[in-house]
Automatic annotation (TrEMBL):
Annotated organism of origin: Paracoccus pantotrophus (Thiosphaera pantotropha)
Keyword hit for Repeat: no
Keyword terms: Signal
Gene3D superfamilies hit by this protein: Trypsin Inhibitor V, subunit A (3.30.10.10)
Designated name of the protein: Peptidase inhibitor I78 family protein
Length: 95
């Protein structure tokens, strides 16, 4: 009977331990983080997409058109230029 008594005492404790909330998943840095050195390019927002053709951009930089398919992998060191429907640079970010 001693084994059953211990079980009856420990079972609720184990069940309670399982109810502890998991920590929230880590979030990627927000847009204010400049892990891809995009700051010098921020002044290009609103400019025509064609200005990028005349520039030397860091390796791995993506120029994303309004209907382009892109991978969803997060890379903090990768600069991305998003082009709007109007053909102008709409957003520059590190992701």
């Amino acid at each position: 009977m001693r084994g059953i008594g211990r079980f009856l005492l420990l079972a609720p404790l184990c069940a309670l331990a399982a109810c502890v909330a998991a920590p929230p998943p880590a979030q990627p840095p927000g847009p204010e983080a400049d892990s891809c050195n995009a700051a010098p390019f921020r002044g290009l927002v609103g400019q025509p997409r064609a200005v990028l053709d005349r520039m030397i951009l860091p390796a791995g930089t993506r120029i994303i058109g309004p209907r382009d398919a892109v991978t969803m992998d997060y890379r903090a060191d990768r600069m991305n230029f998003e082009i709007g429907e109007n053909g102008r640079i709409a957003k520059i970010g590190c992701y």
